[in-house]
Structures are given as C-alpha cells and as structure tokens.
Amino acid sequence: MESYASSSSGDSTSTGEIEMDNAVTSAIALVASFLQHIANPPRPVYQRDYTPGYVEPKRERISMEERIANSNFMRNKEAHYALAADLVEHCWLNRRVTRDD
Q1: Going by C-beta distance under 8 Å and a sequence separation of 6 or more, which residues neighbour residue 70?
Q2: Are 4 and 15 in contact (CB under 8 A)?
Q3: What's the CA gap between 14 and 4, in Å, rounded?
Q4: CA 72 to CA 29: how far, in whole Å?
C-alpha cells in the first residue's frame, strides 16, 4: 500500500495521518463546544448584567422648583447652541484623517 507522503528522514508519521489527526481534533472540539452550549445556554442580553441581590440606591427627591429650573435650562436655546458649537468643534479637532495612497 502506498503512503500519501514519503518520509525521507525516517518519520513514521505521514502527512495524511497528521491531517486526519487535525480533522479529528477539530471535530471533537466542535462537538464539545456544541454540547457545552446545550448544557449552558447563553443568557439573553437583558439578563447578562443582572446581579441578584443588587438594590439600586435611593435617589434624592428634588422639589418642583428644581425640576422646573432644570427643565428651563435644558430648553434654553443659548445653552443648546453653545453645546452644539462645542460638539462640532470637538468633532473637528478629534476627527480621524485617513490617507488614500
């Protein structure tokens, strides 16, 4: 019977046997991964960061006057335009420049 690879240095392992070993190893790894996935299915996204027993800290209640002041500040056009200008300036200063060579 002929061997797929001739061994000139006296190796008893042929290239065909090595390829078969790699294929078997890959198949075993695939089956093991599949079985592990079935035994321990990944949690849905909304449960990944869930920590049992975690209690969110109580928030300080603010008065209605503070709420109105915060609301007015958020709707202030001057503040809006100043923040927009700062954002545009930041984008221009930190943009990524690529060169097409």
Answers
A1: 62
A2: yes
A3: 7
A4: 61
Residue position matching structure tokens 């800290």 = 57
Q: How many helices (H) and strands (E) does the chain have?
A: 4, 0
Answer yes or no: are the C-beta atoms of 30 and 23 closer than 8 Å.
no
Whether pTM > 0.85 for this model: the answer is no
Mean of per-residue pLDDT scores for the chain: 76
Q: What letter represents residue 62's amino acid?
A: I
DSSP-derived 3-state class of residue 67: helix
Q: DSSP E strands: which ranges in the chain?
A: none
Q: Say how many C-beta atoms besides its own lie within 10 A of residue 62's C-beta.
A: 10
